[in-house]
Specification:
single chain, 78% helix, 407 residues, mainly alpha, globular
């Protein structure tokens, strides 16, 4: 794969993933614009993530059955339509419907992952995945930053409409650049869906990755959904553009994910997972300092969100590399099971996190992150022998393509 093609695919990942995250900064503006509560406005975030999890389960398996080019272009076109629908919505119900459509179809990054994995040699796969994830991280960061600023200046609808323009421009570029690939499977669509579920039951290393990422991503989503409410509320009294500036701080994550990919290539996912889960716990402790509402509180929020972003995204690289190494001919279906679980966790985290915030405030959200992470960390510590935590090669991408479970 050429560096130019890798760059284009990374940008595509960024645009697709950005559509999931930019509504997080708009919750207070949506609540004001549609005359509803922040709790109800947060449904736009949850609906996007639920749609995304559904799209991963229902549409990503088609990457093994249909040419990637045709599938990706169709998904981008539908995403652009969903963004236009949401941006023109006159009530919360239409906004939620548009959000579901956006989430359902903006699964391009999950189509690109298996495509790229099949275009590079085994020893470069995790590094390439790290580069693609850095594009996703960049999209997530820029989307939250610009949506908060655009929303505060011009209203909550403008970020949706601007995102639609970007998607249609990208559709035009990719229609000229995407390579043609042959499908990996001739199975019927119902069989593809059933296979994703079957793999979840038969592959213990897949279940392991699903647990780790669902737990961490749920906490991540809870924090970012409620952060906008905290910053724009009476404690800090800031605008939504401040939430976007917080997202820019996470730009360092885009540099960390390729490094994490190289680490996984050398040592396997075990050490990366362990460090990332400890990082999430540390971030929760630091974020708890944000309850103060003064300068020290803002510093705590900046450092805590940075740690959380880095830990979550680097863990994603480790878990995805483990999953892709299991069965090369079933990568789209493996990715379907993995990402469905991850984003169901994220959807639940957004929804539960907003309720936790209403009941217990910001400190409750930080405690919620700890409660989510501890089961995954304990599972890792109790089932991985100490001698393997530092040299876990269970998903090393060797010639066999098989994943060796812990001994």
């Amino acid at each position: 794969m050429s560096s130019r093609m890798l760059f284009v695919l990374a940008v595509t990942c960024g645009v697709a993933v950005g559509n999931i995250y930019f509504p997080q900064t708009l919750v207070p503006l949506i609540a004001t614009g549609l005359h509803t509560s922040s709790d109800e406005a947060a449904l736009a975030v949850s609906a996007t993530q639920i749609g995304y999890a559904s799209g991963i389960f229902l549409l990503v398996p088609l990457g093994d059955r249909l040419p990637h080019r045709r599938l990706l272009l169709a998904l981008l076109g539908l995403t652009g339509f969903g963004l236009l629908l949401a941006g023109c919505a006159r009530n919360l119900s239409l906004l939620v419907a548009g959000s579901v459509l956006i989430g359902l179809t903006t699964v391009g990054a999950q189509v690109i992952g298996p495509l790229a994995a099949g275009l590079v040699e085994d020893q470069r796969r995790a590094a390439v995945l790290g580069t693609l994830l850095s594009g996703s991280v960049g999209g997530m960061i820029l989307a939250r930053a610009f949506s908060g600023t655009l929303g505060e200046w011009f209203g909550w609808r403008v970020p949706y409409l601007a995102a639609a323009v970007l998607v249609f421009l990208l559709l035009a570029v990719l229609s000229r650049m995407l390579p043609y690939t042959s499908p990996q499977s001739r199975e019927r669509y119902p069989s593809l869906l059933a296979e994703s579920l079957r793999l979840l039951f038969t592959e213990p290393e897949l279940r392991r990755s699903c647990l780790y990422q669902a737990a961490v991503f749920a906490g991540f989503s809870a924090v970012w959904t409620t952060l906008a409410i905290l910053l724009t509320g009476p404690v800090y009294g800031l605008g939504t553009s401040a939430v976007g500036l917080f997202a820019l701080v996470g730009g360092v994550t885009a540099c960390c994910t390729p490094l994490a990919g190289g680490w996984v290539d050398r040592q396997g996912p075990g050490p990366v997972n362990l460090v990332c889960m400890f990082g999430v716990l540390v971030s929760a402790a630091v974020l708890a300092g944000g309850t103060h509402g003064d300068r020290s509180g803002l510093i705590a929020l900046i450092i805590g969100t940075l740690l959380l972003d880095v830990a979550m995204q680097c863990g994603m690289v480790a878990n995805q590399a483990r999953v892709y190494a299991l069965r090369p001919e079933r990568r789209s279906r493996l990715n379907t099971a993995y990402m469905t679980c991850a984003y169901l966790g994220g959807s639940a985290g957004s929804w539960i996190g907003s309720h936790v915030y209403d009941l217990f405030g910001w400190a409750g959200v930080c405690g919620f992150v700890v409660v989510l992470t501890m089961p995954a960390l304990l599972r890792h510590l109790l089932t991985t022998p100490a001698r393997k935590r530092g040299r876990d090669r269970s998903s090393a991408v060797g010639d066999s393509g098989a994943c060796r479970p812990p001994q």
